[in-house]
Design a protein that fits this description.
The chain is built from three helices and 22 strands. With 350 residues, the protein is mainly beta. InterPro entries: AsqO/PenF-like_C, DA_N.
Amino acid sequence: MHSWLPLLIAALTTGQYITTIDPTPVTYPVDVNFTGDSSDLSDLTAPKLEAINQTVFEWWYFDAISSSNPNVSVVLTFFTTTATAFPLVPPNSSSVLLTYVWATLPDGTTVVDKAVPNDAAVLGEQNQTSGIWESTGGWIGRTTGYDAWMGWEGSRVSGRIQLDTSSAPLSPCSTPTQFDLSLALGPDLGWVSLVPGSRAVVDLLVDGHPLQFTGVGYHDKNWGSRPFQSLVASWSWGHAHVGPYSLVWMQYTRPGSNSSVPIASAYVAKDGQVMQSGCEAGIVAIQQRRTATSYGVEVVMPGVRLRVQGTAQVAGDGQHYFRWNGGVSGEIFGERVEGGVAVFEAFEFE
């Protein structure tokens, strides 16, 4: 199969950048960037790794969940990592590229598929961005919305996710009035939410059967300069949409007995207008409730108390990682809310 990259590069001569990603892991130390040059989508979406060796990781994540049935969702992730740097991907010594998709059906059944592309590239110019994991999927994004797609020969899941952006990007310590160009969530760990909340339209084929829904969507990216499991002891992340509100939370602890104080970031918007966000101490507290067959969290922020209860487990290894869809109810700024939906996850390495 011929590579699309030379044709793409020739066609996009006006691009601010075109970054191709070598699928072969390098054997030398690489530079990792944790500061944005601007709040433009092209800068925030750009790869933050100079190259990919055995100890660094980066991924671009998209999801959408039905607003009428919290079981129904799709998650699409484009990885550049090795299993050494992020142990929940399959080992592959010859390539750092991976396209992964999870589609969850109305009955809560999840169909999972993955593929290894030959090439990948990320392109950007001001507030436009695109990525292509060759012959497996990609995205095109701008301030008005994103279009992400997946599918390859023999894939169990194929189709597209459309996000109509209703919210500005979010960095860990962004406030309601200012975007913070520091993208470091904690030491050696980066995170930025490109789309904290949006309307989503999904059109898929899953094992040959249509799965179409409208709901809410989300898009972010993570990266790190050391293996993920050496940076994180425990981790709770999620996004919820209930009534006019969109919420994002992130809380994690670092390994070691002296690192039990959580590092956190949180966000609340109403009809796309940011009400509160930041990374100060006490911005969010997460209480997990997990049994062998269920998972839920209580999310507490200033003026906010939500109960998120899982309805369908989307992914996990039964030991270190759990991702669920769920329903949401609670109170936000004195207003009783219910009937919301959420995608949320946990990592536990210690």
